[in-house]
Design a protein that fits this description.
With 282 residues, the protein is an alpha/beta fold. It has a single domain, classed as NAD(P)-binding Rossmann-like Domain (Rossmann fold). The protein has helices spanning 17-28, 40-52, 67-80, 105-115, 117-133, 157-177, 196-203, 240-250, 262-280; strands at residues 8-12, 32-37, 56-61, 86-89, 137-142, 182-188, 254-256. Helix 1 crosses helix 8 (240-250), helix 3 (67-80) packs parallel to helix 5 (117-133) and helix 4 runs parallel beside helix 6. Bound molecules: nicotinamide-adenine-dinucleotide (NAD).
C-alpha cells in the first residue's frame, strides 16, 4: 500500500509510546487515524494532537483482550470513517521483569492475553473491513526485537515468549493473506522510550494480581544484586512511525528499528545451524 492519503488507519495502544508515534506519523501522511486504547482519555488526547497538526484523528476506547469491546470499537470506527485500510495491532504489556522462576502464572496469563490473544482478536475483528479495502489494505503487528532473539541480561521470559508467538503468527498471516492483496508486517523494535512499564501496571486487571517491581539480572562480573539498572539508550517513539510507514510502502515483513542488532540475530541462527550440523553428524 503506497498511497496513504485519505485512507483509514486503526492503531491499538495508540494512546502512548510507539502507538502514539505511529499514529502521529500516519496523521502527518494525511491518513484518518482511529487512535484506540484501553485508556480512552489518552486515545482522545493523541487524536486531538493529530487534529492540532492539521490531520484527522478519532479517539476510541477499546480493550484488545475483549472480543465484545473490539466489536464495539470496529462498529464505532466504521460509523465514523469510510472502511479500514491499515491496522496496527500494537497494544502490548510487560508484566514482569525478573527471572522465569519468579514469574507467576498470572504474569504469564496477563502477558499472553494482551501480547498474543490481543493481537489475534484485534486482527479477527478488523479483517472483514480490511478484506473490503484490499488491495489497499495492510496489517502491522507489534512484536519486538525480543520476538527475534532473547538475552538473559533482560530477564523478561514471558514477554519474549509472547513476542516469538506474535512473530510466528504474523509470518503465517502474511503467507495466508498475500493472495488476497493484504500486506502484513511485524514491527520488531529494540528499546524505545515509552510508558510500557507504567501502563502495564495501570491496566493490569485485578484478576492477575499486582505488578511486581522490576528485578534486573546482575551485569556480568558485577557480583550480584537485583537493583533496576537503566536500559540501553532508547530510541524516541516518534522516530518509529516513519520507519513503519517506509516498511508498509515497500511491503517489507520485518520492520526493524535497530539494524545494529543484526549480529545478535546472526548468532542465534548460527547456534541453530550448529545444532543442525550436530543432528546431521549422527
Ligand atoms: N518500548 C519498547 O522498548 C518496546 C520495544 C519492543 C516492542 N515494544 C512493544 O510496543 C508496543 C507498544 O508499547 P510501548 O512501549 O509504546 O508502551 P506504552 O505503554 O507507551 O504503550 C502501550 C499502550 O497500549 C495500551 N494498552 C495496553 N493494554 C491494552 C489493551 N488491553 N487494550 C488496548 N490498549 C491497551 C496502553 O494503555 C498504552 O497506551 C507493545 O506491544 C510493546 O510490547 C515496545
Amino acid at each position: 500500500m503506497d498511497d496513504l492519503k485519505g485512507r483509514v488507519a486503526v492503531v491499538t495502544g495508540g494512546g502512548s509510546g510507539i502507538g502514539r508515534g505511529i499514529a502521529l506519523a500516519l496523521g502527518a501522511e494525511g491518513m484518518i487515524v482511529a487512535v484506540a486504547d484501553i485508556q480512552r482519555a489518552s486515545a482522545e488526547a493523541v487524536a486531538a494532537e493529530i487534529e492540532s497538526r492539521g490531520g484527522r484523528g478519532l479517539g476510541i476506547g477499546v480493550d484488545v483482550t475483549s472480543v465484545v469491546s473490539l466489536a464495539a470499537a470496529t462498529k464505532e470506527i466504521l460509523a465514523r470513517a469510510d472502511g479500514v485500510n491499515l491496522l496496527c495491532a500494537n497494544a502490548g504489556v510487560l508484566a514482569r521483569i525478573g527471572p522465569l522462576a519468579n514469574h507467576t502464572i498470572e504474569d504469564w496469563e496477563y502477558t499472553l492475553s494482551v501480547n498474543v490473544m490481543g493481537v489475534v482478536k484485534t486482527v479477527a475483528a478488523f479483517l472483514p473491513a480490511l478484506r473490503q479495502s484490499a488491495p489497499d489494505a495492510h496489517i502491522v503487528t507489534t512484536a519486538s526485537l525480543g520476538g527475534l532473539l532473547s538475552d538473559v541480561r533482560a530477564p523478561i521470559g514471558a514477554y519474549i515468549a509472547s513476542k516469538y508467538a506474535c512473530v510466528g503468527y504474523s509470518e503465517m498471516l502474511r503467507a495466508e493473506l498475500e493472495g488476497e492483496g493484504i500486506g502484513v508486517s511485524v514491527l520488531c523494535p529494540g528499546v524505545v522510550a515509552s510508558n510500557l512499564m507504567g501502563t502495564s501496571a495501570e491496566n493490569r486487571p485485578d484478576a492477575f494480581g499486582e505488578q511486581a517491581a522490576p528485578q534486573f539480572a546482575p551485569a556480568a562480573g558485577a557480583g550480584g544484586g537485583s537493583a533496576p539498572s537503566p536500559p540501553a539508550k532508547a530510541m524516541a517513539a516518534e522516530d518509529v512511525g516513519p520507519i513503519v510507514i517506509r516498511a508498509i510502502r515497500a511491503n517489507r515483513f520485518h520492520v526493524l528499528t535497530h539494524p545494529r542488532a543484526r549480529p545478535l540475530v546472526e548468532a542465534r541462527f548460527e547456534a541453530m545451524l550448529e545444532d543442525f550440523e550436530f543432528a546431521a553428524s549422527r
